[in-house]
Amino acid sequence: MRKYIVAGNWKMNKSLAEGIRLAEEVNAAVEKAGELKCEVVIAPPFLHLTEVSKVVGKKVSLAAQNCAAEASGAYTGEVSAGMLQSAGIPYVITGHSERRTYYGETDAILAKKTAQALASGLKVIFCIGEELSQRDSGKYFETVKSQIENGLFQLSAAEFKNIVIAYEPVWAIGTGRTATSGQAQEVHAFIRKILAGKYGQQVADDVAILYGGSCNENNAGELFAQPDIDGGLIGGASLTAEKFIRIVTAF
Ligand code: PEP
User: Fold this and answer.
1) pLDDT tens for residues 47-104?
2) What distances in angstroms separate CA 105 from CA 66, 100, 174, 205, one per listed residue?
3) Is the minimum distance from the CB of 174 to ligand 1 under 6 angstroms?
4) Residues with catalytic annotation?
5) Residue 81 to residues 34, 142, 187: CA-CA distances in angstroms?
6) What is the set of domains in the chain, with CATH numbers?
7) How many other CB atoms are found less than 10 A from the CB of residue 38?
């Protein structure tokens, strides 16, 4: 049985004090919610990770939003996957569309980052998704297929155990324009089919595929009810503990 996951991507938001407070609030809400159907992950900025790790318990896991493509050395400003692992951070997000668009992260760079993360013992939330023009021209299947093939297909079936995929149509991120549950399910089922073709049905069935893109406390329930949607990667709505916990409990 695959895992359900709800992950909050804080992006470049919150001062350190605000981040600690938000993490405390999320932790308290998760504790209060009792038995959950999903794993809860939060991804604060790098600087906040170790401080946040001191205020969350076992029911909230941490993710970094990025890692370096190299293991160590003269790469000013970078943070390696090994450093994250040494700080006790279990997850890293790679391939977020903001990294692809604003920082020129290509499939080849993302394949290296993902390989570094796995080699360091991290679990990876690998993001894919089409631009609006690709959606409108009907090329969204091609886009997600090539992002998966070029970013992940260097991995072995065994390595795939530590991969979570987040399907995030770029036109839905931060826009308030959520994909319909039907649109999202269509692509999630397609992703699982591609994985089955490469790695076999068991690997495909075991991979958690999250939806991201203006997912909020009002639409999460319908999205998560789809058979191939295993949770969400949440941006804006993860910055308020009350909204985030309503998404976490939306299964
Ligand atoms: C994201 O950036 O991963 C995201 C899904 O953002 P939002 O929920 O704000 O659309």
Assistant:
1) 999 999 999 999 999 999 999 999 999 999 999 999 999 999 999 999 999 999 999 9
2) 11, 4, 20, 28
3) yes
4) 96, 168
5) 32, 30, 29
6) 5-248 (3.20.20.70)
7) 21
